[in-house]
Write a structure and sequence with these properties.
The radius of gyration is 26 Å and the shape is elongated. The protein has eleven helices and ten strands. It folds into three domains: about 5-75, Winged helix-like DNA-binding domain superfamily/Winged helix DNA-binding domain (Arc Repressor Mutant, subunit A, Orthogonal Bundle); about 85-130 and about 225-335, GAF domain (Beta-Lactamase, 2-Layer Sandwich), CATH 3.30.450; about 130-215, Enolase-like, N-terminal domain (Enolase-like, domain 1). The chain has helices at about 5-20, 25-30, 40-50, 70-75, 85-100, 105-120, 170-185, 205-215, 245-255, 255-270, 315-335, and strands at about 55, 65, 120-125, 135-145, 145-155, 160-165, 230, 275, 285-295, 300-310. Strands 7-3-10-9-8 form a five-stranded antiparallel β-sheet, with helices on both faces.
């Protein structure tokens, strides 16, 4: 059911006030809100109508009203595109990504902490799938006369390191020659296809090249698992009164497969915000999820999101998720 302009303004005022105070909102408070410009009696009548239509509810007799899922959904759908972050938050994001270097795992973990700090909610970052990455560079580094380190830099920002035991003492020149041969044949391959590459002859570097390819074949079988990085999980505790409810939410956050499935399901349904039962998970009936994909080299690589109470600050959280997802994608595209 569509709302006329006055009821829409009143509903938005109720939602905004409840987000700010966590207290049931009375008609007098709404009447004094910016843009409402009607009497308390009119507000009272319209709030009663909004309650009948399912946008508001009254926790108990004589209390003010609080939004329902339907009320939150109306509020969120009316927000439009996320606004840019401003002030200290914008500066914090710029500084973080200008200084973000090093291995991908650490960057993604730090990104989850950044987003948790910006929103004060639990933040989730799902890493790029390993199987989609290609090898960008190959290096062999000598650690000891018979020990070397094979370093692969992947297109998704991951740095893989593999120790190689050598049969004979090996100097830097031989390692450099073997590294050049490996780079010639492995760059552009995926980590899964690299061990299958056939190198006919590498001359003096043959034993080193053979050892390197053999090392790539003996790797853990967990590379296809999604890497999930969660920051600020403890912040959920301050959002809910019931200890059992907090415990259930924290248990969900500990199950990486469940978290990834939740974010993917929200995006697959064409949503960026799932409110309460829209998450499809009963323990999250009083939570909302905001999620956005991030794009690396023109392809969707992963997703980031925040999990908080339905009473979350949607405009600020949407702005934070939007800018962090964009900045993360840009940073990873730069390599």
């Amino acid at each position: 059911m569509s709302l006329d302009d006055r009821k829409a303004k009143i509903l938005r005022a109720v939602v905004a006030e409840y987000i700010d105070t966590a207290q049931p909102v009375g008609s007098g408070r709404v009447a004094s809100a910016s843009g409402v410009n009607v009497s308390s009696a009119t507000v009272r009548n319209d709030m009663a109508t909004l309650e009948q239509e399912g946008y508001l509810r009254q926790p108990h007799t004589s209390a003010g009203r609080v939004p329902t899922e339907k009320g939150y959904r109306f509020f969120v759908d009316g927000l439009g595109d996320p606004s840019p972050l401003a002030g200290r938050d914008a500066h914090q994001v710029r500084t973080f990504f200008s200084e973000a270097h090093g291995e991908l795992e650490q960057m993604l973990q730090d990104t989850s902490r950044l987003l948790a700090g910006l929103t004060d909610y639990a933040a989730v970052v799902v890493g790029p799938p390993h199987e989609a990455a290609t090898i960008r560079s190959v290096q062999l580094v000598g650690l000891a006369p018979r020990l070397a380190l094979l370093v692969l830099v992947l297109s998704n920002g991951v740095v893989e390191k593999h120790s190689i035991e050598l049969a004979d003492d090996t100097d830097a020149m031989r390692l450099d020659g073997a590294g050049a041969v490996l780079a010639q044949h492995l760059i552009g391959e995926t980590p899964a296809s690299a061990p299958l590459v056939t190198i006919a002859s590498a001359g003096p570097a043959d034993p080193i090249v053979t050892s390197a390819l053999a090392t790539l074949q003996i790797q853990p079988d967990d590379k296809d698992r999604d890497r999930v990085f969660i920051g600020g999980a403890s912040r959920m505790a301050s959002s809910f009164d019931a200890v059992a409810q907090v415990s259930e939410i924290l248990q969900i956050l500990e199950q990486q497969y469940v978290v990834v499935s939740l974010l993917r399901d929200v995006l697959d349904r064409g949503l960026h915000v799932a409110i309460g039962t829209e998450t499809g998970m009963q323990p999250l009936a009083d939570c909302s999820v905001i999620v956005a994909p991030y794009v690396v080299d023109g392809e969707t690589a992963g997703s980031i999101g925040v999990l908080g109470p339905t009473r979350m600050n949607y405009p600020q959280a949407l702005a934070a998720v939007a800018v962090v997802s964009q900045r993360l994608g840009n940073r990873l595209s730069e390599g």
